[in-house]
Specification:
The complex is a heterotrimer of chains A (109), B (280) and C (138).
Chain A lengths: L6 E4 L3 E2 L3 E9 L21 E8 L2 E8 L8 E8 L3 E9 L4 E10 L1
Parallel strand pairs in A: 2-8
Antiparallel strand pairs in A: 1-3, 3-6, 4-5, 4-7, 7-8
Chain B lengths: L1 H15 L13 E2 L3 E2 L3 E3 L9 E3 L7 H5 L9 H12 L10 H5 L14 E3 L2 E3 L1 H13 L9 H12 L15 H11 L10 H5 L6 E2 L2 E2 L10 E3 L4 E3 L1 H11 L10 H12 L11 E2 L1
Parallel strand pairs in B: 9-11
Antiparallel strand pairs in B: 1-2, 3-4, 5-6, 7-8, 9-10
Helix pairs in contact in B: 3-6, 5-6, 7-10
Chain C lengths: L4 H16 L2 H15 L4 E2 L4 E3 L3 E2 L5 E6 L3 E8 L6 E7 L3 E10 L5 E9 L4 E10 L7
Parallel strand pairs in C: 1-9, 3-9
Antiparallel strand pairs in C: 2-4, 4-7, 5-6, 5-8, 8-9
The chains are: A mainly beta (109), B alpha+beta (280), C alpha+beta (138).
Amino acid sequence: MASGVKPRVKVPKTASAGETITIKTLISHPMESGQRKDKEGNLIPRSIINRFVVEFNGENVIDVTMEPAISTNPYFEFEAVVPESGEFVFTWYDDDGDVYTTSKNIEAS
Amino acid sequence: MRTILTAGSFAVVALLAAPALADPDEDNLVINDELQMVTETAAPAHMEHVDTIYSGWRFRTDETQALQIDDFENPAMIFVDQGMDLFNSVDGTEGKSCASCHEDVAAFAGFHAEMPKVMNGKLVVMEDFINGHRARAMGAEPWKWSGPEMQAMVALIGLQSRGMPMNVKIDGDAAPYWEQGKEMYYTRYGQLELSCANCHEDSYGLMIRADHLSQGQINGFPTYRLKQAKLISRHNRFRGCIRDTRAETFAEGSDEFRALELYVASRSNGLSVETPAVRQ
Amino acid sequence: MKLTRRETLALGLAATTVTVLPFRAVAAAEDQIAAFTGGADIGSGDITLTAPEIAENGNTVPIGVEAPGAVSIMVLAMGNPNPDVGTFNFGPLAGSQSASTRIRLAGTQDVLAIAKMGDGSFIQTSSTVKVTIGGCGG
C-alpha cells in the first residue's frame, strides 16, 4: 500500500434531524498519475485511489469515481442529510486493492 | 568577459521588468475564524532598505490563500498529524519517544518563534535540535533534513508557536552568524548574478515570469507547496532559489544555510509564525 | 515554392494549434462523454462549475460543481493527457447535488462539467482556467 495513508474527516458532532450538513475529507496519498517518469526515464506506474464512498447508516451519500487528475492528498467537500442519529462511514479504494476506512458518529435531535 | 557580464545584467533586468501586478493584496489572515495573524508590520530596525514587511500569504491568489485559513483545508495538517504520531512513537536504543521526555508538545509554544538560536556556543536550527535529541536522548538514527519525518516534526513543533510574533535574536553570541547570513543575502550568486535581495528586497510585488515575487519571508515554514504537494523545509527552499540563479548551491544542513536562515528569519521579526503555511 | 513571411507565420500557427489540442486527447474526451451520456444530446441548464480564472499551480486547482436535481456530474479537463477527472454520483442522502475537490491541470485549458439529471437528460457547462507556469521551482 501507499505508505503513511491517513484519512481526516470533518463532520459536525450534532445536527437536528433532517438537517443538511457539510462534510470535508482529506486523505494523504501520492495519487501517482502514471504520467511521470523517474530519474532513469522509466514511467512510474499509476497508483491512485480510484473510488471514494460515503454512507450514513448503510445508505449512500456520495460515490466518487476518481481519475489520476485528482490532486495528491485528495480533498472532497459535499453535503449530507442527517435523518437520524447514526454513523457516517468513509471508504477510499486504492488501485493496489487496499481499502482505507474511517467513521464518525453524529447525534441528531 | 565584460560582454558576458553585460548580457547577464540585461537578462536580469528583462526578467524583472514584467508588468507590475503590484503589491501585496489587502487581505486579512484569520485562521479558523479565531486566530488573527500579523501579515504586515513595520520592518525590524536592522532592515535598512525596507519599511514594511509582509507575509508571503499576501502575495498569493485567493484560491491559494484559502487553503491556509482553515486547518481542515490546509493539506499540511496531514503531515502535522503524522508528526504527532511520530512524537509518540518509540524509536532508538533507549526505548524512548519524544513524549517520554517532553510529554505535551504544547510545551514548545514560543520555541519556533526564536529559532534559529545559539545554544551551547553553536547556531542551532530546529532540524539540529530534533536530530540532536534523537541521537542523545533516544539513541535513534538522525532523520534526513528534508525528509517527511523531519519536516512533519518541525511543522508540529512550529505549529505550537503559530500566531506568536517571530522574534529571533541577532545580537550577542548570534551576531557573527547573523552577519554571515546578511552578507550571503546581499551576495550575487550564479550565472544570473542574483542575490536574495535582488528579488525579495528590490523587486517584491513584481512578476518574475509567472511568479508574484514575495519578500521571501520564512515565518510559515515548513510550508506545504502545491508544486511538490508536500512540506518543504527552509533549506530546501534556499537551495531552490540559489539553483534558480544557476549557481552551485550550498547543502541542506550546511553552516552557510544555518547562517542564512538566522538572517532571513530576523527579517520576519514581528510577523506571526504561520507554520505550516500553504504556498504555490 | 517560396513562402512569404506571412504564409510562414500562418503555417507556424497551424502547427501550434495541433500541438495544443492533440487529437488523441480530444478523441478520448469524446469517448468519455459518449460513455457517460450514451450519445444523448447535451443541453444547458442549472449547472455551475466554480474554478479559478488563474491557477498559481496546476498541481492543485480547486473546483466545485453543482447541478440541483442531478444524479451524477462528470468532470473533464479537456487539455490533460487523460481528460477524465472524476464523476460524482449522488446518493439518496446527498444534502445537495454539489461537491468540491482539487484537481491537476496540465496547462491552460477548458474544464467541462456534464450533469445527468433525474429525468435522464444531460446538461453541461465549462470554464477556462489559465495555469501559470515558469515561476520559481522548489
